[in-house]
Write a structure and sequence with these properties.
Low-confidence stretches of chain A: 1-41, 469-487
CATH topology of the largest domain in chain A: Cytochrome Bc1 Complex, Chain A, domain 1
Oligomer: homodimer
Organism (chains A, B): Phyllobacterium endophyticum
Keywords (chains A, B): Hydrolase, Metalloprotease, Protease
Number of domains of chain A: 2
Distance between the termini of chain A: 5 Å
Protein name (chains A, B): Peptidase M16
GO molecular function (chains A, B): metal ion binding; metallopeptidase activity
Family (chains A, B): Belongs to the peptidase M16 family.
Shape of chain A: globular
Radius of gyration of chain A: 22 Å
């Protein structure tokens, strides 16, 4: 989004399903399907309004704050061919004037009471949120419900905001070698599914987005029966219900949204590499990815096993990859693994690493390959799985211990084909994963001949070339950039 | 197509724009935009029927034969996402019963008089043809016009013929490592354009093609205003005109077909590789491809220069690559280059090679890279260009010296956004290419950091591994398979 006042041109692309390699290694799915413990099952309620809007209420009275989020079940993977970027572009347009309120009034009201707001677009959903005092909940619901129905779209707003998203692409992608590489990795990993297309859009298609596209998108997708409202925080069910009926209840059901069926992946038979060398790159790095089922698409237990496999293989500094390459051998400045299982359609599994000192990408890659081969051959131990499981559950508890985090978990999960029950039963399913399951998914999905490896290199570099011999002057180049989750455009 | 009698399950995929690497290296565009000399400009006539059908007549009285072709301006690149294979599947359905004739009658009539018939589907067009005695022209026109309008589509024919195309995919693609590799090369080379999708379709999508898809495709695309009729051979304009009005003239214009706008490629920034190792591969080979403009999309003169560049670099055994790698060094069993400029949208340029004896793919690739680098750095000489130009023009004259070849040149060219004038002026444009133009297009398009290299290897092979030391028992493994042009499915 950009605020209507033009002060904030926020632009965090959070791609629910897909990696932005070398950019962020926070597992995106950590926010999906993983709310539990501190909020008991009975605390979460959900209901539908007559117009089809799903409402989820998650009381949390630890602080006098509410988080209000509307999740539209539409993301960039729902875009028509040739119209890439329309989902995110439309998110921007939602901050324009409506029939009832001038542009910027909503944002100004939220700011005036010290609230926070933003929006983001992913492959599978587009969400708008505000965090305010409970007394302001009706105000934000009124404005949010209003723009679900009454947005004013015309040539002027389309032209102005198109320039904003084009600038966003220029500054965040086109000027960033790792972002450019990530785009082409996705376009290579996914051969048929629209996850291959960047959330922000291809430049030449963004330039052509027009008023007709925006109007069609609004009519087709911004209907209450295609959205989930999540309210978490210092609020109760009765209050939210009354307010939701008073505000969103007035929005007519404007379209029927069919089943979300996107082109799926064919069987893959090749090993692929994608390389980018650029003078702006100081720290070479590599990433190896595979298609892997998501929580929504996997057979029972597979996604949970992939999550724990990623934890054991490279989820923390206790992991096999980190211990072997960074701690013992010292060949890598960093290295790890992650699983992205939060998407509606097929997700991915990845390992990554960057050499230290005189190491090469090829050496780091070989070291990681050896760790994968070892798990495929010998599996993992009971003790190792238990420790990893505990670390993993703890990290998720930590990640979700905020009302905004909870709202996000429920919103993203319900927007990607799963249910509240899936979220609540998730810890039990993680607890049921057995050592054999870990070995099985490693063997099934981490197949070298179907992998996509990417190399980010200094200009004219090659993966097997030594990094400049001098050690980095500071720890800076050895740290992973601390960026938020993967693949959201705010 | 498959003949309605089930005897012929022909299945030559002719992908106008794209390579089937390791499969055929005949430049597909050799049949586009290159008819000239023996038929003078005045001999070719064209006109439109009232229903919008374009008719081209190419008299050629050397033999008492006519070639009759109908070219629909629809191919696999026009398919909706998720419906891959429908264009080719539909081509099969066109051999079923119509309201006026039982299934197989058309094919039988052609066979009875010693005629030939077939059909093929490409990325950009679908064509049906018969070659018969002039006296049978009215008969084939009657049947062909009939199935443009009166095809009977029902669950039964769809189900039966779907099994046929699925079997075609199994036998031609899924059981063929080089075909599987070619599919993923295209899916990697084209990041956004539908040329990424195989003409025959992805298996899982072919399995879902249904009656509704077939009906929609027929209505939308099989309308006279979306087709070009080409009649070449022992016939004159007046006769064809009268017969066309009598037969095709009765077919109503059933749909308006808008401009053919497919999603175009974004700027590419990465170097990619695609590898497949399979025990059925005996002769390793590699291919390196780049996106390059087609005749339809290029700036004036660029496509012509790319054609001559391919000739100089690797178009024959006189070419630089062949002379260096096969003749002088002897490191390659074969090696060459080709340009595919016959597509409606962006085409491609490729070099390829296979090692001989103890050579490796990496060595052959390096040898070819050196030849490309030399042209980019030093260009070509006047004498070299002149010889290549003469060879090239001669080979094209030879290729087109048949009435079927002429019909094909006109049909494919007019189905991919070019005109009769483009065809007729093409030799002059080839003659105008200068040495600087050759160097310019090499520099502009053969950029290593935007290339896609594919490796086909014996099981567990690597590009830099030596081939088994023993020489091949026969010349067989050193020969390129002699297959027809690239990318047609008959």
């Amino acid at each position: 989004m950009s605020s209507a006042l033009g002060r904030i041109v926020a632009a965090v692309v959070l791609t629910g399903a897909l990696a932005l390699p070398f950019y962020s290694f926070v597992p995106a799915n950590a926010e999906s399907a993983k709310a539990f413990e501190t909020t008991s099952k009975d605390d979460v309620s959900s209901f539908y309004l007559d117009n089809g809007l799903e409402v989820v209420v998650i009381p949390d009275h630890r602080a006098p704050v509410v988080t209000h989020m509307v999740w539209y079940h539409v993301g960039s993977a729902d875009e028509e061919p040739g119209k890439s970027g329309i989902a995110h572009f439309f998110e921007h347009l939602m901050f324009k004037a409506t029939k009832n309120y001038p542009a910027g009034e909503f944002s100004r009201k939220v700011a005036e009471i010290g609230g926070q707001e933003n929006a983001f677009t992913s492959y599978d959903y587009t969400a708008y949120y505000q965090q305010v005092a409970p007394s302001a909940l009706e105000m934000v619901m009124t404005y949010e419900a209003d723009r679900m129905e009454n947005l004013i779209l015309n040539e002027d707003v389309v032209k102005t905001e198109r320039d904003v998203v084009l600038e966003e692409r220029r500054s965040r992608t086109d000027s960033n070698p790792s972002a450019l590489l990530a785009e082409e990795v996705n376009a290579t990993l996914y051969q048929n599914h629209p996850y291959r297309t960047p959330v922000i859009g291809w430049l030449h298609e963004m330039q052509q987005l027009n008023l007709a596209d925006a109007l069609a998108f609004y009519v087709k997708y911004y209907t209450p029966n295609n959205a989930t409202l999540v309210v978490s925080g210092d609020v109760d069910l009765a209050t939210v219900k009354a307010l939701a009926e008073k505000t969103y209840g007035k929005v007519p059901r404007r379209a029927e949204v069919g089943k979300r069926e996107r082109p799926q992946e064919p069987e893959q038979n090749t090993k692929r590499t994608v390389s980018l060398a650029d003078q702006r790159v100081s720290q070479p790095s590599f990433q190896k990815m595979w298609l892997a089922p998501s929580y929504a698409s996997a057979k029972p237990g597979e996604a949970e096993a992939l999550d724990l496999l990623s934890e054991i293989l490279g989820g923390s500094n206790r992991s096999r990859i980190y211990q072997a390459l960074v701690v013992s051998e010292g060949s890598a400045a960093n290295a790890g693994a992650y699983y992205q299982g939060g998407s509606l359609d097929e997700g991915s599994f990845a390992v990554y690493g960057a050499p230290r000192g005189a190491g090469t990408l090829t050496e780091v890659e070989a070291g990681i390959d050896a760790q994968i081969a070892r798990i495929i051959k010998d599996g993992v131990t009971e003790g190792e799985l238990e420790k990893a499981r505990n670390r993993f559950l703890k990290s998720v508890i930590f990640a979700r211990d905020s009302q905004a985090g909870m709202a996000r978990i429920y919103g993203s999960t319900l927007s990607t084909g799963q249910t509240i029950r899936d979220i609540q039963e998730w810890p039990d399913r993680i607890r049921k994963v057995k050592v054999q399951d870990i070995q099985d998914v490693a063997k099934r999905y981490l197949v070298d001949s179907r992998s996509v490896t990417s190399y980010l290199m200094p200009e004219d570099g090659k993966p097997d070339e030594k990094v400049r011999a001098e050690a980095p002057a500071s720890g800076e180049t050895q740290e992973q950039p601390e960026t938020p989750a993967q693949g959201i455009v705010q």
